[in-house]
Amino acid sequence: MNVLDRPLSPGDPIAIIEDEEVNRRATGWIVEEADFTPVPISFIPTSLDDLFAEIEGKVAAVICDHRLGRGSAVSYFGAEVVAKSNRRKIPAVLLTSYANSDENSTIRRWRSEIPMLLSRGQDSDPDRLAEALNFAEEECRGVYTEARKPYRVIVRVRDCRYGPEEVVAECVVTAWQPRTTVDVPASMISDSLSMPISELVGKRLSAEVNIYAPTAGELYFRDFRMGPGVPAGW
Questions:
Q1: Which of 45-49, 140-144, 202-206, 230-234 has the lowest mean pLDDT?
Q2: Which one in 36, 119, 199, 201 has a CA-CA gap of 20 to 30 Å to 9?
Q3: E-strand spans in the chain?
Q4: How far apart are CA 138 and CA 161, in angstroms?
Q5: Per residue in 155-185, pLDDT tens?
Q6: Among the three residues 82, 105, 140, which one is the final residue of a domain in this structure?
Q7: Is 121 part of any domain?
């Protein structure tokens, strides 16, 4: 079953990857109200490959929570599941209670392949779910809204600091909002450039960024490179 074979249709099976039973049931009701068939995943494998082996070819789309490791040995986040599912052309949506707290760290790392992020409670309704699945399906087909298209722009690292889970880089994207800093996991940048995090501050880089995103939480960053030097006399 592949999104490129045919569009999502009423009754299609949708995998629900959620480690808490109460949330699994709640999401199942939303899926049913959206006219799809819920397929709850009650046991989440420790390996991401094993997870995809369980669902690939058996479901038409995926809805996943973000923090999956509570009380288990799962070492990956739902954002990675959603990103890699969309990469495999299985439309996927991230639905989580941690949308706001994790959007600048573990979610930002995979945001370029998460077409829409849904906040549990606020976005827990069938219309929003259907909209999110439609966005994911369109991007699997290579169709992007203007707010999701990437542009190569200059990104300046103004500072680095310890966040709740990891070091984040405070970045300025002049082509988006020149007076606003956006938090990005510092390791995303340092790993791309093979540069220690301690040397990032003050660097002018280039990256692919969706600069028409309406909010900071919807920005994504990918393919960091060293940027041009500062012109003489600046």
A1: 230-234
A2: 119
A3: 13-17, 37-41, 61-64, 92-96, 117-119, 151-162, 167-173, 181-185, 204-209, 221-226
A4: 36
A5: 999 999 997 778 999 999 999 999 999 999 9
A6: 140
A7: yes
